[in-house]
What does this fold into?
Amino acid sequence: MSIKIEVTIEDLYHLPDNCKAEIVNGKLVLMSPTGFLPGRAGGEIYANLRDYERLTKSGYALPDNVGFIVNFPNRRSLSPDAAFYTGKPGGRFLNGAPIFAAEVRSENDYGDKAEKDMASKRRDYFAAGTLVVWDVDVLKEEVIRVYRASNPEEPQVYRRGEVAEAEPAVPGWTMLVDNLFV
It folds into this structure.
């Protein structure tokens, strides 16, 4: 007889500090470190959001590896590469989802399975209350796909030379797509 033991939020609290993971379908999904361009892109998005936070004082810019607790049958946590959060801050993981999340594609985020996983994660973000999700591709197509909860299947695409936004989640905030590259 096999016994299925589901991973809990408490288990996430006990992972090493440098370990990024989410709970999906009752299992711990570890995320491997990323390369230079995706890592830098996430950092650039966070830095730009941090400037917006300081200017507007309307929420909190958050870098990679911050955990958000959600309560779905298939998912218990989210950990975007950059985010903007307007809820109550705390010392541990945050309750609920950010209003804006950026997911930067790493080397392993391509192909049919990766596309299905990313679409599923976007649906979870929207179900949890996220208004805008960026799908950032700095390795292949060099674009930002902006998905909105109001029209989750039709992204707006921004390319080099353009200015991306995250309306209505982060009102008035913009970022040059070119800033994601060296």
Summary: The chain has a mean pLDDT of 92.
